[in-house]
Amino acid sequence: MVTVTIDPVTRIEGHLKIEMELADATGGALGTWQLVKPVDAAGKNGGAKSSGTLFRGFEIFLKGRDPRDAWMITQRICGVCPAPHAMTSTLALDQAFGVEDKLPTAAVLMRNILHGAYYLYDHPLHFYILMGPELGVLAKYPPMVPPALGVKGISSINLGTSYAAAVEHQRRAAEIVAIWGGKFPHHMTEYPGGMSVRPTVDRIATTFARMVGIWEFVAITMQNDLNAIVAQNTTITNAVNSLIGAAVGLDDIGVGTGNFLSYGLFPDYTDYSDWIDPKKRDKSLVKSGAWKKGDTAPGQTGFDPDKVTEDVKYSWYSSASGLKPSVGETTPQKDKAAPAYSWLKAPRYDDKVYEVGPLARMINTWGLTWSGDAFKRVHPVTGEDFGNVSWTVLNANGSIVDRVAARAFLSLAIANKMFEWIAALKSYLNDPVVEYKDVPDTGSGLGLWEAPRGALLHWLEIKGKKIDRYQCVVPGTWLFSPRDDKDRLGIAEYALSCGTTWLPKNLDVPAVANAIYPAADVDLSAWGVAAKQKWGDALGIALTPHGLANLNMEPYTGTPRYNTSLALAIIRSFDPCIACAVHIITPEGKRIVTKL
């Protein structure tokens, strides 16, 4: 048996280990080739294992603190998505303080603007910096490959043009978060019952000015880059088919269970009552929902927060399995014996394995075809119409390309909505921004929001004006959970074990790229290379000086090495954020390593 281990997985947030047991398959030019052992019909026995290897215990050290500390401390769970933790905690505090039905409209708008800007910072980060390099290589699309040849490479062969532009775009979005949050990351202006910042003409104007460039980026550049990637899917499928005798394209890689869960996002400022009941949220920009495999339209299966539970059979905890967040426990047991293999718990909804994240949000809101005014492209200043865009989901069970498309389309929907929120806020310049209340002696609250990576839940209970219980169920646990008590794989484990995760033996990235694109048509004359190069050879010229030609090659005991590029593309399509999922530091600051 061959088991390939990636530890740590890089270009993510947090500490993640992936183990993949390989199985042999036959067909195509390669004869015998290796893939991750497929999952069975019951969702069990696949070859992938996902292990969170760090624990920090936020739920433990929040106990006994002033409840108003929670939204500020929980932002420190993650440096990539602090804003969603702040919002989710604040929503729980709104409920616990008894003010969720009294929020001033100005506060709702400012929260939407702050968090809309955060999404416009985060989704392009994933699209280009975290996931983009794999897509750029697979699709022979230089703008999404990192600018390894520097400024000269950008100007001569467009190597990294979109990648570099995304960094500048992120800066503008982060500045908007800071305008309304005081700083970024870890903003400071949310409060139970509203906000602690006032809308001003200056804040509104500077937000509008930055949003124009952001809109142009997500409406034009991101959509053009997505189209360029999808245009190569047939070429990729045919090339892989000739190699392994199986028609595997971007829409066949990383297939999930077909179950998608969303808590909703961006409430309607004209009817906040719709937002308060998470079973509704029909008027929010992103709707709540629990889409089951086989559904054809949003709303067929409503979301019920009471159906969220967590299993720990395969997790290093001594607490009971199947607990709801309201009675959840976080009791680490680092010496827990096998079969435990992760610090992540295994969240389940209605006793099923669900995918959360951008694709889940889009499907629960717009179904399997995304079209309409949310995706119009009318320039907010010039009025130029670039035409509406639409997307029909390529694989109803999920795939890497559908997840990437979901980020691009939601970015556009948010960018369009931002101008509506900015314009509306001008009518509330002199209105209250907070419904202030003192800390209650007792109370409880449930916060449900969406981090870019997926559904985020905070549960808070107050006794004697202090936090008595705090539980977080976060995207990292949903996506990268170990097996549950019924031995069913977590969603990332399932996607890796979907039967198409090919791990080429002894083929590095340039070699695989040459196999997919054999034509010598890349002009590197600006670099003193006389003859045109194959795509893989050109990548080799760019990557070798940086020591990256063997990128994604993982050893197995013995001679062979396996190219994990497809596996990493699947992993990164979920945008791992494992710091959210697993929380251990010692008083001395030393990392605790648990040997398996």
Your description of this structure?
This protein is an alpha+beta fold. It is built from 18 helices and 19 strands. Strands 1, 2, 3 and 4 form a four-stranded antiparallel β-sheet that branches. Strand 14 and strand 15 form a beta hairpin. Helix 4 packs antiparallel against helix 12, helix 8 packs antiparallel against helix 12 and helix 11 crosses helix 12. The chain starts with a strand and ends in a 15-residue tail after the last helix.
Helix content: 25-40%
Strand content: 15-25%
Shape: globular
Annotated CATH homologous superfamily:
Cytochrome-c3 Hydrogenase, chain B
Named CATH architecture: Orthogonal Bundle
Determine and state the CATH class. Answer: Mainly Alpha
| Distinct helical segment count | 18
Class of secondary structure makeup: alpha+beta
Structural features:
Cytochrome-c3 Hydrogenase, chain B; 19 strands; 35% helix; three-stranded antiparallel beta sheet; disordered C terminus; 596 residues; alpha+beta; four-stranded antiparallel beta sheet
Task: Note the topology.
Blueprint: E1 3-6, E2 16-26, E3 32-36, E4 48-52, H1 58-61, H2 70-73, H3 82-96, H4 105-130, H5 132-138, H6 150-157, H7 161-181, E5 190-191, E6 194-195, H8 201-231, H9 233-244, E7 260-265, H10 273-276, E8 286-291, E9 308-311, E10 346-349, H11 358-366, E11 369-370, E12 391-392, H12 400-425, E13 442-451, E14 454-463, E15 466-473, H13 475-480, H14 491-496, H15 509-516, E16 520-522, E17 533-534, H16 535-543, E18 553-555, E19 561-563, H17 565-573, H18 578-581
Antiparallel strand pairs: 1-2, 2-3, 2-4, 5-6, 7-8, 9-10, 11-12, 13-14, 14-15, 16-17, 18-19
Helix pairs in contact: 4-7, 4-12, 7-8, 8-12, 11-12, 15-16
